[in-house]
């Protein structure tokens, strides 16, 4: 057996030690298969593979962020963060959750790096300050920039959790006083997976880690480095209000009749057509709801530069040659073409109502 598996133990062994039943593991396998749009039969294979997988050593670094990402993960519906920490991974360093502080905490990071050289995964939440040598965000007397370079050097892969580490996020928004950049601008010689969202969907963070542990390889990624099993569809593709969009039925304000009828929020500025994430399928708070279901448009928080894109309540613009540079030209053009169809449908409907009025 691989020495690495011997040292770390398998996920199955860790589960058995804590009295987690095979049935619960099968249930999680099925849940993960559903989340990744795999056939239901894949659930059993995932559970078997997960049980035999080694526990992945993870070093978690937090940089310029609001702690929303780790708050989100600790509310993960399935698996819970406790399961993640004790069963799927060996979380060797995480500033917010670990008991160690000061020099002992730094020692834990260095020890984990030495013990798992070339085999640990670095999770980063938060963007990296680069202005003036990165002095605007430091811990233990080192800049985040130094710690990232030092820790990533012998890592297997990097998981950027949240829009800040994936694309710069809010710290990167104009005027970007700290020179904030995404992790992928600094680490260019290692695979970087972007699990974006401000914060990211907790099940997507957990699901991506579970994918790495289960399959022992990176998931397929989209053009922005995001795992396709979770970021393959736009919010608009999977939105339950989509039939209203297709019929040209739009709320014009948040308190009009259209809003009360639950019509499409496109004209209220919803960014669902150009935003790729799993909110419309996994929802939030254990599948309770998501922003559009609670009556507010999508802000597009899992896309680059979402904060500077020109207003959360502004209807998506008509195409120009600049449009879509950051939000995805194809998606934007698709959305606008779709919107055009919807507008035509609405005009036809309006005309039909007028015609009907004339005949009465
Ligand atoms: Fe950024 Fe995360 Fe938004 Fe906050 O760690 S993605 S500001 S939810 O906390 O980094």
Classified by CATH, the class of the largest domain is Alpha Beta
Ligands, ions, cofactors: ligand FSX
Give the percentage of residues in beta strands.
5-15%
Number of helices: 17
Which strand order spans the largest sheet, edge to edge or round the barrel? 2-1-3-7-9
Tally of discrete structural domains: 2
Mean pLDDT across the residues is 85
> Per CATH, what is the topology of the largest domain?
Rossmann fold
Q: What attributes does this structure have?
A:
360 residues, alpha/beta, Rossmann fold, Cytochrome-c3 Hydrogenase, Chain A, domain 2, 2 domains, two-stranded antiparallel ribbon, 17 helices, globular, binds ligand FSX
Describe the fold and architecture.
- With 360 residues, this protein is an alpha/beta fold.
- It has 2 domains: 229 residues, NADH:ubiquinone oxidoreductase-like, 20kDa subunit (Rossmann fold); 125 residues, Cytochrome-c3 Hydrogenase, Chain A, domain 2 (Irregular), CATH 4.10.480.
- 42% of the residues lie in helices and 10% in strands.
- It has 17 helices and 9 strands.
- Strand 5 and strand 6 form a beta hairpin.
- Helix 2 packs across helix 6.
- Bound molecules: ligand FSX.
- Ligand FSX binds next to helix 5, helix 9 and helix 10.
């Amino acid at each position: 057996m691989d020495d690495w598996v011997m040292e770390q133990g398998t996920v199955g062994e860790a589960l058995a030690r804590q009295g987690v039943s095979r049935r619960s593991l099968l249930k999680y396998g099925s849940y993960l298969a559903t989340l990744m749009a795999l056939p239901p039969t894949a659930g059993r294979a995932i559970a078997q593979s997960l049980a035999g997988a080694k526990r992945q050593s993870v070093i978690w670094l937090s940089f310029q962020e609001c702690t929303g990402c780790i708050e989100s993960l600790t509310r993960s519906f399935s698996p819970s963060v406790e399961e993640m920490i004790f069963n799927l991974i060996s979380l060797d360093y995480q500033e917010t959750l670990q008991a160690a502080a000061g020099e002992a905490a730094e020692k834990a990071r260095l020890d984990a790096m030495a013990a798992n050289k070339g085999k640990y995964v670095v999770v980063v939440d938060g963007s990296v300050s680069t202005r003036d040598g990165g002095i605007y965000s430091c811990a233990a007397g080192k800049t985040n920039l130094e710690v990232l370079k030092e820790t990533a050097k012998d890592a297997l892969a990097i998981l950027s959790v949240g829009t800040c580490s994936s694309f710069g996020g809010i710290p990167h928004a104009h005027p970007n006083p700290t020179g904030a950049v995404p992790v992928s601008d600094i680490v260019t010689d290692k695979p970087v997976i972007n699990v974006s969202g401000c914060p990211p969907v907790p099940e997507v963070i957990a699901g991506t880690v579970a994918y790495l542990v289960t399959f022992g390889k990176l998931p397929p990624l989209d053009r922005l480095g995001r795992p396709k099993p979770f970021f393959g569809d736009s919010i608009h593709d999977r939105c339950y209000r989509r039939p209203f969009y297709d019929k040209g039925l739009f709320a014009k304000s948040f308190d009009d009749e259209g809003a009360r009828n639950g019509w499409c929020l496109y004209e209220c500025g919803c960014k669902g057509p150009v935003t790729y994430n799993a909110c419309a399928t996994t929802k939030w708070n254990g599948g309770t709801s998501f922003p559009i279901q609670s009556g507010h448009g999508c802000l597009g928080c899992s896309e680059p530069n979402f904060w500077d894109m020109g207003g959360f309540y502004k209807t998506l613009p008509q195409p120009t040659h600049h449009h879509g540079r950051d939000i995805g030209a194809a998606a934007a053009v698709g959305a606008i073409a779709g919107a055009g169809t919807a507008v035509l449908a609405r005009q036809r409907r309006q005309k039909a109502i007028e015609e009907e009025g004339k005949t009465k």
